[in-house]
Amino acid sequence: MLGLVLAENRGDRIVALDANPDAGTLADRLTGDTSATVRELLAGAAHASSVHDLDRFSSLAGRLRVIASEQDPAAGESFSREEYEAVCGLIGRFANVLVTDSGTGLVHSAMEGTLTLADALVVVGTPTVDGATRASRTLDWLHGHGFSALAEQAVVVLSQDRWSREIDRDVVRRHFESRVRAVVELPFDQHLAHGGRIDLARLAPATVDAVLLLAARITDGFEG
Fold this sequence. Notes:
By secondary structure, this protein is an alpha/beta fold. It has 11 helices and 7 strands. Helices cover 42% and strands 14% of the residues. The strands form 2 sheets. The protein has a 4-stranded mixed beta sheet with strand order 2-3-1-4.
C-alpha cells in the first residue's frame, strides 16, 4: 500500500521489490503476476539500458512497477546481499524510489543489503503481546548490530488486524513513539483481511488516510 500511494501521489518513478527469500506474496497482492521475477531481472541486467527495459521484468499496479520475488524458495534462499545490491544499482538508474519488502529474516544475506542501503525503515507490528514484542525486539536487534540511526528514524506501523481488549493500545503506541521517528496506526480493513489483490479504491477512508500518513512520514525523511 505504501508503494501504491507513493506512485499515485508523487511524480517519481516508484518500484516495489519483493526481496523475501521464501516465495513472497507482494506481486500476488499488487498485480497477480509472478511470471517475471527478480531472478530474471538479475539475468538480464546487462542488457537494461532504459526504464522501459524494466517492463520485461516487472508488472504494473497503476503507476507502481512491481518486481516479484523468486517463487521457488530453494532458489530464493540463494538471493545474496551482492545480488540485492546489484538489483538496487540497476533500479536506481531508472527510478527515484525503491520500496523493498524484505520478509522477516533479519539475518538473511539480502536483508543485510537492505539495511545497509535503506534510507528509511518501516517496522510492522500489532497492538498485541507477541506483535508488539517482536517489533520492539527488531528495534533492539538493529541497535545491537550497527543500525541505531536507522532504528531511531524508523516508522512503526501498528496494524489493527489483530488486537485485544486486554492490551492498552495507547501504552503500546507511546512505547514505540519513544523509540522511533513516527508511529502510524493502520485500522482493520475488510478489503485487506481477505488476503487478495489490493485495490486502493476499495479501502475504507480511514485506511487510505493511514497509508497517506505513512507515506508522508516516510517522505519527511527525503530531505535528509
